[in-house]
């Protein structure tokens, strides 16, 4: 499942983030890629370790992790550290697969879902599409600024060369309670059904209680760290 979620609604909030990101220091993006991905990665990455960088990291994390649709679609157990990348002047990230395991020690995690929070309006740069090669079909995405694209970490994907302008994006990974993407999709469908039925009937109705029970029991059956 490839999903686009609107996460930042107002342009003032996007402008404020852009201003903060502008003040950060940038390094070669190759430093944070796995061995094979490094060879195809041509972009810059913000240093998020300073005081302002950490504050920004916290705010970006809240934008993603507190989003109700992200929660329902991804069933997150753990989030990776986020990266903020800048791609310009023919910069790109060639076809690659993300590392299956990331982080060290306590933070070691499996990557089930990859996501990109797009921070630049699409009219401000050419190219820079995120291209996801799912089984049997290829999807090109270049959404609005403030939208998050979630896609399976198991897919081959790439960022097309940015031929003019500059593309700023925030990327990260999720370890889900539900490792299997088919099971995750079924739970997401049921969750959406529940939200829609709640607008039509009482929460205490037998139908909604049965749905609550089924969702909870499927989570118990499929939920794994
Ligand atoms: O910038 C993007 O949209 C995706 C970046 C990516 O694939 C990665 O960092 O592994
Ligand atoms: Fe990637």
TrEMBL record:
The keyword Transmembrane helix does not apply. Pfam families: 2OG-FeII_Oxy_3 (PF13640), PKHD_C (PF18331). Residues 78-176 form the Fe2OG dioxygenase domain. Gene3D superfamilies: q2cbj1_9rhob like domain, Rabenosyn, Rab binding domain. 2-oxoglutarate binds at residue 167. Binds 1 Fe(2+) ion per subunit. It comes from the Bacteria. PROSITE patterns: FE2OG_OXY. GO terms for molecular function: 2-oxoglutarate-dependent dioxygenase activity; iron ion binding; L-ascorbic acid binding. Its cofactor is L-ascorbate; Fe(2+). Fe cation binds at residues 96, 98, 157. Keywords: Dioxygenase, Iron, Metal-binding, Oxidoreductase, Vitamin C. HAMAP family: Hydroxyl_YbiX. NCBIfam families: PRK05467.1-3, PRK05467.1-4. This is Hydroxylase. It comes from Erythrobacter litoralis. The lineage of its organism: Bacteria, Pseudomonadati, Pseudomonadota, Alphaproteobacteria, Sphingomonadales.
């Amino acid at each position: 499942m490839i999903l686009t979620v609107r996460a930042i609604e107002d342009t003032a909030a996007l402008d404020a983030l852009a201003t903060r990101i502008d003040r950060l220091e940038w390094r070669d993006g190759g430093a944070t890629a796995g061995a094979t991905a490094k060879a195809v990665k041509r972009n810059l990455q913000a240093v998020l370790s300073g005081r302002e960088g950490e504050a920004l990291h916290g705010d970006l994390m809240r934008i993603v992790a507190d989003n109700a649709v992200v929660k329902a679609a991804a069933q997150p157990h753990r989030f990776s550290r986020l990266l903020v990348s800048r791609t310009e002047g023919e910069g790109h990230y060639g076809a690659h697969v993300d590392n299956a395991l990331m982080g060290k020690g306590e933070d070691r995690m499996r990557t089930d879902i990859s996501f990109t929070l797009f921070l630049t309006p699409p009219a401000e740069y050419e190219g820079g599409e995120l291209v996801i090669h799912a089984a049997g079909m290829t999807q090109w995405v270049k959404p609005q600024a403030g939208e998050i694209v979630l896609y399976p970490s198991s897919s081959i994907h790439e960022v097309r060369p940015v031929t003019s302008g500059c593309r700023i994006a925030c990327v990260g990974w999720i370890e889900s309670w539900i490792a299997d993407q088919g099971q995750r999709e079924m739970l997401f469908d049921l969750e959406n059904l529940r939200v829609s039925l709640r607008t039509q009937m009482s929460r205490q109705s037998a139908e909604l209680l049965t749905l609550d029970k089924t969702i909870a029991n499927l989570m118990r059956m499929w939920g794994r760290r």
